[in-house]
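Quick check before the chapter quiz. The format below is the same one you will see on the exam, so make sure you can read both the input and the output lines.
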Amino acid sequence: MDDRLKTTAMRRGLIDLAILCAIGLLMGFLAPLSWDRISAPVRYLYWMVCISLAWRSSRISRSIALI
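Here is the expected output.
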């Protein structure tokens, strides 16, 4: 693989990760579904896991659609 392609893929992955972290932290801060009674670390962890699993499943479905 070309160095340029590796750099582009790494940059895209880091951008995706930054966006996912921002969305997860925002959802944890907003505390939808009356989750404000639950401690903040648990809330943030829950939303980070949900957002990253949703991202992963969308990546898998896109790769399956290309086959």
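If your answer matched, good. The first helix runs from residue 3 to 30.
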